[in-house]
Write a structure and sequence with these properties.
The chain has 151 residues and is mainly beta. The chain has 2 helices and 12 strands; from the N terminus they run H-H-E-E-E-E-E-E-E-E-E-E-E-E. 14% of the residues lie in helices and 37% in strands. InterPro entries: Biotin_lipoyl (IPR000089), Single_hybrid_motif (IPR011053).
Length: 151
């Protein structure tokens, strides 16, 4: 088990994806508790209720009144084009708002360039955390557009 832990931690820089994989593996192995400690890092998981992945700083009180820190992977959606970004549809309704749950491939915005409309779709299931651009503004290639938490 120590070799797997060293892989997860590398030089004590904890990778969120690897942490989620470790938690999932421990849950699937029906472990009740997992503990690891070295000079600069301490990990302790107790599986007394279902863990729901949420943002890093969020906590959730579960049925048995245990507090579990929850972890999400943060996704930053970047522009693929130089274009005008459209955040609302033709009926003036936002495609997405902060806090919305979206499914993978759901339309979350549109690019418009030379009267051509290209849909911007969600790369994964998740929660919209932040809109980093304003509706109808020109954007550059590779500009940060939307922040979401992967579920």
């Amino acid at each position: 088990m120590n070799d797997g832990i060293k892989c997860v931690m590398g030089n004590n820089n904890l990778d969120k994806n690897k942490l989620i994989e470790l938690i999932t593996l421990a849950q699937e192995s029906n472990l009740k508790e997992f503990y690891y400690e070295n000079k600069s890092l301490k990990l302790n998981f107790k599986f007394e209720a279902e863990i729901i992945y949420k943002s890093i700083s969020d906590t959730k009180i579960l049925k048995n009144e245990k507090i579990v820190n929850e972890v999400f992977e943060k996704i930053i959606i970047k522009s693929e084009y130089v274009a005008r970004i459209k955040l609302v549809d033709s009926n003036n309704h936002f495609f997405v708002k902060v806090g919305d749950y979206v499914k993978k491939d759901a339309k979350i915005a549109e690019y418009e360039y030379l009267n051509v409309i290209i849909d911007l779709k969600a790369p994964c299931d998740g929660i919209i955390k932040e809109l980093l651009v304003e509706h109808n503004h020109m954007i550059d290639f590779n500009k940060n557009l939307i922040v979401m938490d992967r579920l």
